[in-house]
């Protein structure tokens, strides 16, 4: 009986470890006397973001906060290996994906593996930190674009996640949001969330 209990305990520990979704970067940020702790949002299954403009481009998005998105689950199989405009393929972990569904699905990594080198925090408005906080993820697949001189080049994809302080938001954040391409290969999502409110706001 004792050995059986030990085995059950070991299995529970293993399963608990497998189910854990640890952050790969610090999920705490402070600036100008305000601080945010978004650790509770880290979920490797990812968060689906639908463009509330009626999805005019056909793209859909899956992101994690402070960590990578697991392959499988909500991600289509086309996301297992993606290829940039420079012909380089990647099967590495990523914190954000952009994809289409349908008969011929397409997928792009919008970031590389989430590390402190390619994930950066900032306040939305330096004059009013209570407005919210931003997580910028970089290092994704390249896309064909132009440099500042107008010459053709390959630009890395990235995504900026803006968490607007919305105390009345009941869920993690509204999955219906606006996603635009600020500039070539640079995506920007507006997320209404309680997580955007500084801890000092109560």
Provide an overview of this structure:
The protein has 202 residues and is mainly beta. It is 9% helix and 36% strand. The protein is built from 1 helix and 15 strands; from the N terminus they run H-E-E-E-E-E-E-E-E-E-E-E-E-E-E-E. The protein has one helix at residues 2-19; strands at 28-31, 34-37, 47-51, 60-63, 82-83, 89-90, 96-99, 107-109, 119-123, 132-137, 142-146, 152-156, 158-165, 176-183, 186-193. The strands form 4 sheets. The chain has a 9-stranded mixed beta sheet, with no helix packed on it. A hairpin with a 5-residue loop joins strand 11 (142-146) and strand 12. The longest helix has 18 residues, at 2-19. The radius of gyration is 19 Å and the shape is globular. Mean pLDDT is 84; it is low at 1-20.
Main β sheet profile: 9 strands, mixed
In DSSP terms (H or I, runs of 4 or more residues), the helix count works out at: 1
> So what's the overall shape?
globular
Going by helix content, strand content and strand pairing, the class is mainly beta
Strand order of the largest sheet: 8-7-4-3-14-15-13-10-9
Report the radius of gyration as a whole number of Å: 19 Å
Low-confidence segments, ≥5 residues, pLDDT <50?
A: 1-20
Any descriptors?
202 residues; mainly beta; nine-stranded mixed sheet; two-stranded antiparallel ribbon; 1 helix; 9% helix; 36% strand; globular
């Amino acid at each position: 009986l004792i050995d059986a209990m030990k085995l059950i305990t070991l299995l529970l520990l293993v399963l608990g470890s497998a189910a854990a979704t640890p952050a790969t970067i610090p999920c705490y940020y402070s600036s100008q006397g305000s601080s945010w702790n978004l650790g509770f949002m880290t979920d490797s299954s990812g968060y689906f973001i639908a463009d509330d403009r009626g999805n005019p481009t056909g793209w859909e998005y899956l992101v994690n906060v402070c960590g990578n998105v697991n392959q499988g689950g909500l991600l289509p199989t086309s996301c297992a290996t993606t290829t940039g405009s420079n012909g380089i393929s990647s099967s590495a972990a990523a914190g954000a994906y952009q994809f289409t569904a349908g008969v011929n699905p397409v997928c792009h990594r919008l970031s590389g593996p989430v590390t402190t080198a390619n994930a950066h925090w900032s306040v939305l408005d330096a004059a009013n930190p209570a407005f919210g906080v931003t997580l910028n993820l970089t290092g994704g697949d390249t896309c064909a674009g132009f440099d500042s001189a107008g010459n053709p080049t390959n630009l890395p994809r990235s995504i900026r996640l803006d968490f607007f302080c919305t105390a009345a938001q009941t869920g993690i954040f509204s999955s219906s949001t606006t996603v635009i391409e600020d500039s070539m290969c640079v995506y920007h999502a507006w997320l209404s969330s309680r997580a955007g409110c500084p801890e000092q706001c109560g």
